[in-house]
Design goal:
Blueprint: H1 3-23, H2 27-54, E1 63-68, H3 75-88, E2 92-97, E3 100-101, E4 106-107, E5 111-118, H4 120-143, H5 152-181, H6 187-212
Antiparallel strand pairs: 1-5, 2-5, 3-4
Helix pairs in contact: 1-2, 1-4, 2-4, 2-5, 2-6, 3-4, 3-5
Length: 213
């Protein structure tokens, strides 16, 4: 099987698991599907990184994707989801705030976008998982009644932030378990190297943008 075919098969398995998570009515089942999806993504990332190491590949292709936060409700919570997913998948994320709007002549509040840096396969995983978790967050928020003693807006803001925090913890646990179950030497280090390369790529772009201003 070619590398592209393996990658496509991995993405199809992840997509199927996330679809099941979105359609399930049982929280524990949703979590199990998401955790399994993350485990599959981590296993693929490990295999890809170990192949690069075995072939003494010096170059590591690092790309980036942008996730628009400017029109998303609860953009802070969504940015936390992006950061959690990016971290679990050995990527680096830069969140940008809105700036001056020449049309209105005002400084806008809120977040503009999240730019995620990583390998192409990792970025595919991040985009897919963020989209699914955002949808699951909206479903959970819709189906959770606001307690009579709570202010609606405050409750919803706290709910989505807590949701993002739980996701971060669960994804981290999934990655750690997958690493523990892999007995190959140097597994954790190759993923640290991937994260470092993603971070370097992000810093290079930010430095270039600052120098041009």
């Amino acid at each position: 099987m070619t590398d592209d075919a393996k990658r496509q098969k991995m993405l199809e398995r992840v997509e199927a698991l996330l679809a099941k998570a979105e359609s399930s009515d049982f929280p524990a089942e949703k979590e199990a599907f998401v955790d399994k999806a993350q485990s599959i993504m981590t296993e693929y990332a490990i295999d890809e990184a170990m192949l690069r190491k075995a072939s003494d590949a010096v170059d590591m292709e690092i790309d980036h994707i942008e996730i628009d936060l400017s029109k998303i409700k609860y953009s802070l919570a969504v940015s936390m989801l992006v950061a959690a997913v990016a971290d679990a998948n050995h990527c680096f994320v830069v969140v940008t705030r809105k700036g001056y709007n020449p049309r209105t002549g005002k400084q806008e509040r809120g977040l503009s976008k999240a730019t995620v840096f990583g390998t192409p396969a990792s970025l595919d995983c991040v985009g897919m998982l963020v989209m699914s978790l955002h949808k699951q967050m909206e479903i959970a928020l819709r189906d959770t009644p606001v307690p009579e003693w709570e202010h609606g807006k405050t409750f919803r803001n706290n709910f989505v932030i807590a949701f993002a925090q739980r996701i971060r913890e669960r994804l981290r646990n999934s990655v750690e378990e997958t690493l523990r179950n892999d007995t190959r030497a140097g597994v954790a280090l190759v993923l640290v190297n991937q994260k470092d390369r993603s971070t370097d790529a992000a810093k290079a772009i930010v430095d270039t943008e600052l120098a041009e201003k």
